Amino acid sequence: MPKRKLNNIPKQDLPRNLGEVIVRYMEPGNAASTGFQDAHRDGYYVFLLQQSGESRLMVDFREALMTGESVFFIRPGQVHYYLSTSNVTGWLVAVNSVLIDKSFIAFFEEQNQLGPLSLDCASSRQLILIVNALQTSCLSEDDGYPKAITSHLVSAFAGLIANLYKVAAPEPSGKDGRPFDITRRFRKMVRQDYCKIKRPSQYADKLAISTPYLNECVKSVTGMTVTYWIKQESILEAKRLLWYSPLSIKEISIKIGYADEAYFSRIFSKVTAMTPVSFRKSRF
Question: Under 8 Å CB-to-CB from 276, ≥6 apart: which residues?
């Protein structure tokens, strides 16, 4: 992992002059020249479609290894960077979330443990065909409907990737009922509001259900409690800030919604088995 601290964690947004999509071909010598050299987070989705070679990335403290024909996605807000590349060819597709179907967004946001996915030749060809069409559409200056075509191609591309992941790791049966829907909505709220809302009862109120029922739903679907997921989201952001920024522990505590630094330190230690100070020192 990088040893130097950043003034803050840089966030990259899509350049306005390039629109809502960037399609970039990667080849040996430029595969790591995609804005991934330094740790940063993006305000958009990144899809990596690799045709050959090997890539090693760090994404939110997890190493991801791509070998040969493979695909991977990085969600907005995740801190990431390349560790190494070797003879890589393929495509990087950066996409504004508004162009991706909400059902595919929901799938991507719910995945915490998924790494790169190996592709068979047929799936790789399908994705490459869409990427080629997407690049042509992005570069088009026709007076027709290039924006609409681009939007549909993005949705097809993201949908095919979501489907490949879903087929490779099918969800257990029974995940289409009300508990699953409540859990999905709860976890989306946590990702958006973990800095401001810490109590399970507050999420239950927003969902118009009782706290015991919320906990029952979340635990039946994920195996973990409501409190667990609130803490996980908070501590992940704390780890990012401890590792990559010069903010003091007190500043980080306040930034992620804990006014009491000592309480934050106790929670951090319980979740990670390390104190915030020890975690920060471990990077050197």
Answer: 238, 242, 249, 252, 264, 265, 268, 269
Please report where in the chains the tokens 């330094």 appear, as a residue. Answer: 38
Coil, strand or helix at 251: helix
**Residue whose token pair is 């609409």:** 148
Domains belonging to the chain, first-starting first, are 11-168 (2.60.120.280), 178-281 (1.10.10.60)
- Cα separation, 135 vs 133, in Å, equals 5
Q: Average pLDDT per run of 10 along the chain, which is 284 residues long?
A: 58 77 86 65 94 94 95 94 92 93 89 87 95 87 72 93 88 70 92 93 96 95 93 94 93 94 95 94 78
Residue whose C-alpha is closest to residue 241's, from 222, 223, 257: 257
